[in-house]
């Protein structure tokens, strides 16, 4: 519209998006930066008096329908790096950086890293980039997710190999070998959970839901982890905030000692699993 500036459009968009988002002003600024092909900082410092770009209105319409900003922008920052995303993968979240921190603390120099349910590749590729590990494998059953993870790997950690696999299927791990570090962020949301429309309506259900208690995938996956760990190997699992006791029990039954890690908000977020003496993995 003639005479409408970036500043005007941001105010109007933020007011509209307040019904959709708890971060309406931030969302509007990010969408404006995308429409202007620049950064949010540049918008605020240099473009507020400019005419509003024509593409901005369509972007705001999409966000008003609860489409996540990350999907609109086709990218999400995680641990200081930008990852490509689309509706075929979960959006990497800052809470999941707890898994990276825990992994780096307990296994700072892995030789082989496995990420189970790699999605966008955020966990695997971040750990590979941070540690310089020479080999990483991201296992993923979704073809769409494998496409995104492979594209991210080419940019962030080319030593990563993204492979098809499903831990619910017999023989899925037969050719993988053993790993110093295993990462996993399996589906763990309860089927009836009250999720925000941005999540339930847009993110892939197969990567979210895991039965009435959110434990179905843990029950299948955790007992299979010892056969994938090298001697002295460690696994780090993301969990839901209330799932620590239940998943800890599963892990202890599989022969693991378990340490709980909390995220920055103080919520249970990760379990670090290490095999107790005489349990699990074969010797070299």
Automatic annotation (TrEMBL):
Q: Where is the Methyltransferase small domain?
A: 110-193
So which domain of life are we looking at? Bacteria
Keywords in alphabetical order, please.
Methyltransferase, S-adenosyl-L-methionine, Transferase
Q: Please write the reaction equations for the catalytic activity of this protein.
A: L-glutaminyl-[peptide chain release factor] + S-adenosyl-L-methionine = N(5)-methyl-L-glutaminyl-[peptide chain release factor] + S-adenosyl-L-homocysteine + H(+)
EC assignment: the record states 2.1.1.297
List the Pfam families hit by this protein, alphabetically.
Answer: MTS (PF05175), PrmC_N (PF17827)
Database matches in PANTHER family: HEMK METHYLTRANSFERASE (PTHR18895), MTRF1L RELEASE FACTOR GLUTAMINE METHYLTRANSFERASE (PTHR18895:SF74)
Name of protein = Release factor glutamine methyltransferase
Where does the chain bind substrate?
Answer: 185-188
What the record says about family reads:
Belongs to the protein N5-glutamine methyltransferase family. PrmC subfamily.
Under the heading PROSITE patterns, the entry gives: N6_MTASE
Q: Name one GO molecular function term.
A: nucleic acid binding
Q: Which SUPFAM superfamilies match?
A: S-adenosyl-L-methionine-dependent methyltransferases (SSF53335)
Q: In UniProt terms, what function does this protein have?
A: Methylates the class 1 translation termination release factors RF1/PrfA and RF2/PrfB on the glutamine residue of the universally conserved GGQ motif.
């Amino acid at each position: 519209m003639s005479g409408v500036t970036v500043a005007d459009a941001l105010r109007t968009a933020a007011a509209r998006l307040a019904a959709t988002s708890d971060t309406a002003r931030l969302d509007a600024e990010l969408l404006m930066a995308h429409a202007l092909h620049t950064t949010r900082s540049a918008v605020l410092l240099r473009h507020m008096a400019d005419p509003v770009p024509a593409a901005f209105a369509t972007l705001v319409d999409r966000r008003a329908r609860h489409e996540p900003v990350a999907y609109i922008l086709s990218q999400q920052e995680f641990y200081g790096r930008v990852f490509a995303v689309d509706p075929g993968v979960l959006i990497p979240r800052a809470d999941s950086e707890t898994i990276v921190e825990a992994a780096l603390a307990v296994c700072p120099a892995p030789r082989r890293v496995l990420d189970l349910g790699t999605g966008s590749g955020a966990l695997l590729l971040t750990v590979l980039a941070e540690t310089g590990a020479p080999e990483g494998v991201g296992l993923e059953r979704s073809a769409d997710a494998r496409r995104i993870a492979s594209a991210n790997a080419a940019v962030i950690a080319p030593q990563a190999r993204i492979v098809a696999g499903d831990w619910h299927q017999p023989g899925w791990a037969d050719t993988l070998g053993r790993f110093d570090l295993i990462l996993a962020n399996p589906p763990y949301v309860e089927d009836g959970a009250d999720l925000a429309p941005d999540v339930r309506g847009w993110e892939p259900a197969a990567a979210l839901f895991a039965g009435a208690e959110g434990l179905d995938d843990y029950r299948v996956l955790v007992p299979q982890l010892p056969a994938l760990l090298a001697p002295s190997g460690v696994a780090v699992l993301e969990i839901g905030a209330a799932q620590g006791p239940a998943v800890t029990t599963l892990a202890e039954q599989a022969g693991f000692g378990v340490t709980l890690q909390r995220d920055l908000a103080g919520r249970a977020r990760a379990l670090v699993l290490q095999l107790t003496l005489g349990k699990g993995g074969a010797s070299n």
